[in-house]
Amino acid sequence: MTAPPASGGRGPHIVLVGLPGAGKTTVGRLLAEILDCPFVDFDAEIERRLGMPVAEIFRTLGETTFRDLEREITSEMAGLPGMVLAPGGGWMAQEGNVSLLRPPARLVHLVVPVDEALARLGPEVALRPLLAGDSPAARLEALAASRMPLYSMADTEVSTQMLAPQRIARELARLASGWGWQVG
């Protein structure tokens, strides 16, 4: 990945965290558009680098390889101008990832109830390695329970329940102006 050119008005990285189905990718793309900065979806970047879907990476190379690549991307992002980043839902659970970016990065927890996250994922839930198989709802509940203490360390949280992604992105852009971003 090559470093984008530095531009005026960029604040710290904005890192969107939350459960699968919280809207990290959808909101992240919209927010990056508003802020006129790059957006990096870690899952998509890992898929690009390895030339295979995340589910296949987990199946053939293992979760450790996936987590190592998340760490590598995080390290690469640390020295770059502010962007909107959307790591995987388990990124915060990997020791050291957050400290590579924070400070100055701002973490935003996109909050979503488990039932709504599952509804948003729909049939794609089968493509999520940590949710595939019997009882995706029970698996997501367990992930939520284990990850909530980590997500609670975010700088701010925004409920994504019953709000349009565009509205959430506009609210985050408003917050970003207080974090050093010039928002037009």
Rg, Å, rounded: 16 Å
Beta strand %:
5-15%
How many DSSP-defined strands?
5
CATH names the topology as Rossmann fold
Helix content: 40-55%
Give the strand line-up of the largest sheet.
2-3-1-4-5
CATH level-two architecture: 3-Layer(aba) Sandwich
Please describe what this structure looks like.
With 184 residues, the protein is an alpha/beta fold. The protein has one domain: 3-Layer(aba) Sandwich (Rossmann fold). The protein has helices at 24-35, 42-50, 54-61, 63-78, 97-101, 114-121, 136-151, 165-177; strands at 14-17, 39-41, 84-86, 106-111, 156-159. A five-stranded parallel beta sheet has the order 2-3-1-4-5.
Short note summarizing the structure:
By secondary structure, this protein is of the alpha/beta class.
Which key phrases capture this entry?
5 strands, Rossmann fold, 8 helices, 184 residues, alpha/beta
Secondary-structure topology with pairs:
Elements: E1 14-17, H1 24-35, E2 39-41, H2 42-50, H3 54-61, H4 63-78, E3 84-86, H5 97-101, E4 106-111, H6 114-121, H7 136-151, E5 156-159, H8 165-177
Parallel strand pairs: 1-3, 1-4, 2-3, 4-5
